[in-house]
């Protein structure tokens, strides 16, 4: 079964498990299937290797989910079970490093990771302390440049001796400030991992014991620090398999170094080299065009690509079109989308791939006129919507930038049937807020002000499509507030508000997509308009590549101030790779072409701003399959390629499912629409206490003596409350220490612990995955027999008897079965604050029942069937009631 229906080269790759190997996989060569089978072959053939010894780095989380799903399916088919697969790491290189640092180095457990937006917010809040001022950069205006520079320097910190004193000082300040606030950025995760492996002998040994087989996908896009990490893991004894394609190196602007894949065999003295050069995705017509273009590159590994696709190539499938004006070009695209759709090609199987986003809106306007549904991926237009301009107006008013009538008019422009009275009440409430009288940061909660406004305006879902879109965007605006307050929650009120308004003006604008684009659970049948970079790893029945003029594709170099105006090129080894050249642009065009399964349309307008024809437009025409467009061409519906009918993958965690099982509509409000709960100064207490208990339990499993000194050190390392003032922190610290003291009054029970904070992953097939962690598993003796008990710790004010029968705890039971192959005997709730506990038996029916419930939940989520199903008591307590209940329901449930 492992090698069924594979080519000989694919079989060779699957069986290459004793030696290091480089696999060059052309587009559509089935590399995911090969990597899947190779990993299962390792587990099948090497009894000394367990799933936790296998690590696979993917370029994106989405790629990881696909690979992981296939590994579970193949594991079940070949091995008969997937026990322990939850301990196998399949994911990004950053995720792996973060996991290892936080799993084995307690001082990093409280750390959170700043994404790009949070990093900008952090720098703007601590402008002086992070060294930005030292480098002479303007706050807000040049934040991007500073963040880019710090990331670049962190990924090349081993060249620090080349830098000047100002930059070296800023670099040190930036890291120190991040660490003092318990934050990583993405570049610091990798730097810390490498430095720990190079200096921490104990940690080095732990990693060496864990990583026995390492697979690196998309190896062509690794940068210097990633390559340094891979090299160290190889030194520690890992079998190394890299998979990639030098022709698809398209992330040089992020620092990826194509020389890594070009020189891999020589640098690692690898003898096993396999080229998967058969493309099973694309017809011979697509392959002919791709080859005729990419062979013009000189700096590439030798390979001959051929088509193994079963879909026939028909004349007219692959065409070029030259028109006079850009609007004629966009009409050509729309008309052919209609023709393809009329023969059975779903809109979702059609993509328009852009070199730059600037023409995306113009194409969208033409599709709109033709009533063709579309999604513009990566168009960050959230702040241009009427509802988000109105939401922004709330804070502009509070900051004295607009008057009350302007705020009222902004909300009247929103396409929602507000009553005059409701909108007036909402604005009247805002008018009573006096920022000048607020002294403490907790006095000004931006999220609460925002959601109170929506509550008073009585904005709730009413069955209209327009209202649904408004709620998507207002939910996304809630995320904008959440992003800001994560970094700035503890600022003084006036400063917080003023800074937030600047954030909305300088940073948020252009950085957030409209809300519905963020819903990963429901994807409409619509044409995708995206950049070529965004299309990497995707495939479509038909692909349109417009704008093939010089300076658009290939792209013209962008002017203006760049990172090289902030740091010197000679400080970064191989800095020229960031610039890109014609060969890099040709790789990008090659990637665009090879996204197509059957139909390819390339086009240009002679009277576009850049009138000169693109060299790629001419190179593509060297293929005998690339024909001039004939409007009389009739597409054969009997020759369609395989069309996607797979359901959208669903990766759910325990918290998401808990929301769903409590109330599906609350799940919709928080997950689909994206509404955040307001922060509080005491947030994080439960996680901090859990972290302390976790470390105590893990130490007990390892046989470490739990002394007062150990406990005190554990608290110092992991107990972190990011927003508590000192008096509150001391109070919560005392509470947590009291909980731990009570917990340790039964130290003899520590010997019963078998697992602590154990990751579980449940693959239910049909694209459904559930993951999370079990707090504790212990083995107790009852009636002369050993019994396994799954324990969930609680800190919230929820009665244990209410919690014991929830689906969440039953999911733990299901996860334990998937992890070990065994059904535990009991599930138990233990309340850390009170020591109250409750226990229920686990049966095969319990486990099977919750598995069926999860599958039913996934089906409802995919169908957007998420009704309100709360009783009065639940609604009264619900944190999202203001977005759910209309006025009559509020009177009934909330008393007015």
Could you describe the 3D structure shown?
- Residues 4-283 form the UvrD-like helicase ATP-binding domain.
- Pfam families: PDDEXK_1, UvrD-helicase, UvrD_C.
- Belongs to the helicase family. UvrD subfamily.
- It catalyses: ATP + H2O = ADP + phosphate + H(+); Couples ATP hydrolysis with the unwinding of duplex DNA by translocating in the 3'-5' direction.
- It is a single chain.
- By secondary structure, the protein is an alpha/beta fold.
- The protein has five domains: 8-105 and 189-276, P-loop containing nucleotide triphosphate hydrolases (Rossmann fold, 3-Layer(aba) Sandwich), CATH 3.40.50; 135-183, no CATH class; 306-378 and 524-639, Rossmann fold, CATH 3.40.50.300; 382-512, no CATH class; 679-862, Lambda Exonuclease, Chain A (Alpha-Beta Complex).
- It is built from 34 helices and 23 strands.
- Strands 13-14-12-15-16-11-17 form a seven-stranded parallel sheet. It has a six-stranded parallel sheet with strand order 3-2-6-7-1-8, sandwiched between helices. Strands 18, 19, 20, 21, 22 and 23 form a six-stranded mixed sheet that branches.
- Helix 16 runs antiparallel to helix 21 and helix 18 (420-431) runs antiparallel to helix 19 (446-456).
- The longest helix is centred in the middle third of the chain and has 24 residues, at 465-488.
- The model has no long low-confidence stretch (mean pLDDT 91).
């Amino acid at each position: 079964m492992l090698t069924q229906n594979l080519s000989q080269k694919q079989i060779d790759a699957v069986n290459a498990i004793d030696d290091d190997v480089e696999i060059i996989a052309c587009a559509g060569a089935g590399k995911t299937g090969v990597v899947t089978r190779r990993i299962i072959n390792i587990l099948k053939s090497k009894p000394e290797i367990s799933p936790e010894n296998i690590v696979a780095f993917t370029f994106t989380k989405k790629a990881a989910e696909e690979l992981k799903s296939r590994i579970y399916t193949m594991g079940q088919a070949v091995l008969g079970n997937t026990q322990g697969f939850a301990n196998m790491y399949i994911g990004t290189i950053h995720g792996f490093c973060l996991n290892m640092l936080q799993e084995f180095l307690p001082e990093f457990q409280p750390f959170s990771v700043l994404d790009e937006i949070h990093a900008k917010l952090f720098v703007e809040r601590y402008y002086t302390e992070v060294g930005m001022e030292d480098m002479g950069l303007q706050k807000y205006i040049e934040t991007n440049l500073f963040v880019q520079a710090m990331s670049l320097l962190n990924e090349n910190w081993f060249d620090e001796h080349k830098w000047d004193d100002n930059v070296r000082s800023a670099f040190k300040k930036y890291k120190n400030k991040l660490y003092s606030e318990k934050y990583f950025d993405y570049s610091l995760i990798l730097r810390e991992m490498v430095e720990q492996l190079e200096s921490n002998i104990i940690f080095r040994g732990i990693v060496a014991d864990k990583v026995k087989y390492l697979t690196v996908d998309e190896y062509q896009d690794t940068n210097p620090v990633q390559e340094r990490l891979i090299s160290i893991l190889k030194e520690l004894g890992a079998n190394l398999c890299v998979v990639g394609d030098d022709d698809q190196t398209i992330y040089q602007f992020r620092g990826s170094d194509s020389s890594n894949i070009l020189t891999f065999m020589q640098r690692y003295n690898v003898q096993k080299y396999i080229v998967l050069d058969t493309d099973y995705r694309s017809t011979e017509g697509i392959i002919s065009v791709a080859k005729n273009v990419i062979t013009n590159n000189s700096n590439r590994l030798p390979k001959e690509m051929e088509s193994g696709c079963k879909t026939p190539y028909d004349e007219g499938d692959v065409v070029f079109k030259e028109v006079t004006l850009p609007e004629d070009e966009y009409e050509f695209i729309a008309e052919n989308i209609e023709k393809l759709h009329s023969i059975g090609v779903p809109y979702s199987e059609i993509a328009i791939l852009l070199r730059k986003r600037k023409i995306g809106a113009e194409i969208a306007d033409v599709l709109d006129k033709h009533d063709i549904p579309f999604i513009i991926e990566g168009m960050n237009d959230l702040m241009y919507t009427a509802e988000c301009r109105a939401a922004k107006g709330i804070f502009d008013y509070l900051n004295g930038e607009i008057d009350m009538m302007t705020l009222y008019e902004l909300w009247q422009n929103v396409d929602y049937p507000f009553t005059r009275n409701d909108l007036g009440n909402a604005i009247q409430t805002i008018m009573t807020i006096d920022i000048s009288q607020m002294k403490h940061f907790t006095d000004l909660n931006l999220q609460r002000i925002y959601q109170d406004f929506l509550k008073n305006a009585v904005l709730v879902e009413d069955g209209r499509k327009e209202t649904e879109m408004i709620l998507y965007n207002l939910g996304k605006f809630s995320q904008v507030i959440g992003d800001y307050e994560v970094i700035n929650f503890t600022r003084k009120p006036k400063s917080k508000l003023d800074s937030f308004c600047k954030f909305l003006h300088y940073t948020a604008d252009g950085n957030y997509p409209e809300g519905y684009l963020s819903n990963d659970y429901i994807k409409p049948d619509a044409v995708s308009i995206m950049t070529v970079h965004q299309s990497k790893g995707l495939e479509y029945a038909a692909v349109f590549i417009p704008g093939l003029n010089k300076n658009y594709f290939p792209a013209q170099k962008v002017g203006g101030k760049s990172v090289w105006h902030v740091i010197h090129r000679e400080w970064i080894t191989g800095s020229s790779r960031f610039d890109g050249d014609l060969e890099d642009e040709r790789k990008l065009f090659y990637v665009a072409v090879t996204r197509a399964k059957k139909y390819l349309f390339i086009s240009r307008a002679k009277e576009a701003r850049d009138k000169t024809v693109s060299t790629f437009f001419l190179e593509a025409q060297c293929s005998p399959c690339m024909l001039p467009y004939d409007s009389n061409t009739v597409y054969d519906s009997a020759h369609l390629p395989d069309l996607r009918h797979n359901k959208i993958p669903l990766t759910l965690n325990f918290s998401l499912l808990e929301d769903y099982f409590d109330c599906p509509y609350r799940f919709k409000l928080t997950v689909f629409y994206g509404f955040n709960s307001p922060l509080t100064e005491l947030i994080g207490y439960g996680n901090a206490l859990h972290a302390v208990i976790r470390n105590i339990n893990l130490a007990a499993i390892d046989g470490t003596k739990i002394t007062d000194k150990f406990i005190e050190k554990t608290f110092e390392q992991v107990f972190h409350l990011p927003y508590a003032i000192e008096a509150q922190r001391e109070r919560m610290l005392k509470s947590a220490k009291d909980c731990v003291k009570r917990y340790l009054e039964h130290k003899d029970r520590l010997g019963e612990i078998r697992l602590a904070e154990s990751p579980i992953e449940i693959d239910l097939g049909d694209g459904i995955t559930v993951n999370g962690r079990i707090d504790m598993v212990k083995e107790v003796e009852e009636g002369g027999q050993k019994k396994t008990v799954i324990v969930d710790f609680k800190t919230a004010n929820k009665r244990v008897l209410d919690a014991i029968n929830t689906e969440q705890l039953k999911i733990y039971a299901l996860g334990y079965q998937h992890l070990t192959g065994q059904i535990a005997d009991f599930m138990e709730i233990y309340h850390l604050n009170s020591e109250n506990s409750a226990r229920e038996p686990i049966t095969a029916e319990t486990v099977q029942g919750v598995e069926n419930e999860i599958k039913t939940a996934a089906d409802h989520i995919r169908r957007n069937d998420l009704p309100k199903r709360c009783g009065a008591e639940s609604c009264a307590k619900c944190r999202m009631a203001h977005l759910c209940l209309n006025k009559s329901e509020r009177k009934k449930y909330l008393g007015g």
